[in-house]
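Troubleshooting: if your tokenizer reports a length mismatch, compare your output against this known-good record of 143 residues.
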Amino acid sequence: MDISDEGQPLEPVWIEINNNVCGGLTGAPSASLVAQRFIGAGWNSRSASWESYEVETSWCRVELEATDGRTLLNGVVDPDRFVDLAALLTRFGLRFSIELYDDDGELLREIQAGTPSVPIREKAPLLPARLLTRLGLVTGAKQ
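Known-good structure output:
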């Protein structure tokens, strides 16, 4: 997989905090292909190990690690942008569950999306704003 440093680096305010986001992507073909999707969305990517990748933008940095049948995701996200991460995973056509935690390790929010799996090499479908609103991923859209 190509490594990309053309995106925005993580803002310094988020570097020192503990991991506050974790989850899993079900049915993702590989961490490499998921990282390629993030690169396509303008994020940075670098290899974290033989089979895992770290992807980042100014408001989020997560590691993608392949396991049997799932790709695990953990790292740090601006809590105000947690739904943006979920919207991006939805746009990628991935089934996922992600959780946001506070500084004390208490669960603040969980988002699950059971979108039908789309082969990651194909363009993910764009979901209508009213559907994203019902899923709680977009606010203020007309229904």
